[in-house]
Structure formats: C-alpha cells, structure tokens
Amino acid sequence: MGKIVTVTLNPALDKTTQVRKLVPGGLNRLENIVLDAGGKGINVSKMIAALGGNSIASGFLGGGSGEEIARMLHGLRIQADFVKTGHPTRTNLKVHSVEYGITEFNEPGDPVSDDDMDALKKKLTGHAAPDTTFVFAGSLPRDTAPNTYADLIHMVKAKGATVFLDTDGAAFRAAIEAKPDYIKPNTFELMQYFGKRGAIEVEGYAALCQHFIEKGIKMVAVSMGAAGALFVTATKTLFTPGLVIQARSTVGAGDSMVGALVYAFHKGMALHEAAALGIAASAGAAVTEGTTPPSREVVDELLKQVKVQ
C-alpha cells in the first residue's frame, strides 16, 4: 500500500485556553492551557494516526516553536519530513468563553524563501508516485503567491499522485484549476468561491458542487457545521446529518473530517463508509478539547449515530 503525505506550508503551535468571562479591553486570566501541534495538514496527520493509520507530515518548521511541533509529532509516532527555515513557526491563540465560544488570534506566519520552497519541492517530488496521496491543507505563508498550491499539485500529479485539497480564498481558486482529486470546502468557502452570500438548502450546495465535478474533480465534501456534511461525486450525492453532541471546541473538526476521509479512501472504503467515518471524526473533534483529535474509540461510538442519506 502507498503512503499519505500531508503538507502544511503555514503550521502553528496552537495554544488553546479558557476564560471564565471574556473582557474586551480588560484583563483576561487564562485557564486550562493546552498546547498542540497545529496547522491543517498536521491536524490531518494527527487524525489519521488516531484512527490507526500512518502518514508523513511535511512543510516548513522553524525556531523553538517548530522544534516543539516536531517533538509532539514524534510523540504521536507521525513521521516528520519538514524543511527547517530561519523563521520561528507561528503561535496561534484560541480562547474559549461561554458567551462567545472560540475566539481565535492567528499569526500570519513569516515569508518563505525561494531556497526553502525549492527544498520542499525536492522533498515532495521524492515522495510522489502513483500510490501516494498528498494532502495540501491550510493557509499560505505571508507573501506567498496564491498559485503555490496549484504549482505543487501539478508537480506531484505529473508523477501520478492523488491529491486532496483543503484551503480557501485565492489559493483555493487557483488550485482548483490544477484539478485536485478531492476537495473539502465548508459552506462559507463554497459560497465565497461563487461570489454568493447567505445560506441555501442542501440541494443548492449539491448543485454548486457539480461545477467542480465537471472540472474533473472526483469528489467534493462540503462541511456544514452542526448541520452535517455533503459528499458529491459524478454518480452519487450523499448527505450525513449532524450528530447530537455536546461540543467543546469546533477547532480542527474539518481537519479531522479530511483525515478520516483520506484514511478511508486509502483503505479502499466505499464512499458511504468514508462519509460516515468523516462525519463521526468531525463530531469527535468537536467534543474533544483543543486541536487534539478524537480517539478511535470515540469515533467508533459516534459512528453508531451516523445516518447516510
């Protein structure tokens, strides 16, 4: 069986904490601080590991925060193959309060040099093969060209690799033209791509997804928060309603869905099985503190509630 390589160009050391009451403009005392290796691709690797799978995490790491992320990945038995940069990896702060839920303070990340980008391309090309699945996920570092993901996708697909994309904005728009095999926008990102606003019915989202299918993308997974998720291919449209849970943090829920989908497809599961695992993993992440993925036991328990329509 081939390998899975997750690529995080703009990783972060995630600090998740709580306040009893958020006081804008005043003193806030943080409680229950949890540090996690973060960034969307890294979160995908963590979910794959929690399900019992293996992946290689790649991208850029630098400074003490980057070394801390590498140590955390080693502790999770996730193989790390990052380019070491001269800038420290950013730190993101996520503050939970009862009245506001999660308030996020995300650093932009430092620019990446041409030499570092060339080094990463060499690494990824070395991994690329017909039995390799790449996951390109998350934001781009500051001052990085919007077509960066598109260039990387073209590069690895030229060697026969499969690509799963999860990003947004200009990077998403440019990368679509490179025809990734799988994409996972949320409803906001989907509407943003089409220049639309507001919420629409599930059937409306499914209709929008056909645009991507016609471009040659094999599957579109649309995460819809508490409402559930939609999965569209050229021959099937599946909907999984959201599960009844007591959410603690929605941070990383979409990444956990991607991790479960990649794991499922890598194992040869059918679309309805992958969809069920994806929604269970997403719900499991929502009931788990910080950006820590849910355990396999939590996911299996939630699977009992999943309905695929």
Could you describe the 3D structure shown?
- This protein is α/β, with parallel strands linked by helices.
- Helix content is 37%, strand content 24%.
- The chain has 10 helices and 13 strands.
- The chain has helices spanning 40-50, 63-75, 114-127, 148-157, 169-176, 187-193, 202-214, 253-266, 271-286, 296-303; strands at residues 4-8, 12-18, 31-38, 56-62, 79-85, 90-97, 101-105, 133-137, 162-166, 182-183, 219-223, 228-232, 237-241.
- The protein is globular.
Number of helices: 10
Strand fraction: 15-25%
Rounded to the nearest angstrom, the distance between the terminal CA atoms is 31 Å
Percent in helix? 25-40%
Q: What letter string, H or E per element, gives the SSE order?
A: EEEHEHEEEHEHEHEHHEEEHHH
Rg, nearest Å: 18 Å
The unreliable regions are: none
Q: Outline, from the CA principal axes?
A: globular
Q: What is this structure's SSE topology?
A:
Layout: E1 4-8, E2 12-18, E3 31-38, H1 40-50, E4 56-62, H2 63-75, E5 79-85, E6 90-97, E7 101-105, H3 114-127, E8 133-137, H4 148-157, E9 162-166, H5 169-176, E10 182-183, H6 187-193, H7 202-214, E11 219-223, E12 228-232, E13 237-241, H8 253-266, H9 271-286, H10 296-303
Parallel strand pairs: 1-4, 1-8, 2-6, 4-5, 8-9, 9-10, 10-11
Antiparallel strand pairs: 2-3, 6-7, 11-12, 12-13
Question: TL;DR of this structure?
Answer:
The chain has helices at 40-50, 63-75, 114-127, 148-157, 169-176, 187-193, 202-214, 253-266, 271-286, 296-303; strands at 4-8, 12-18, 31-38, 56-62, 79-85, 90-97, 101-105, 133-137, 162-166, 182-183, 219-223, 228-232, 237-241.
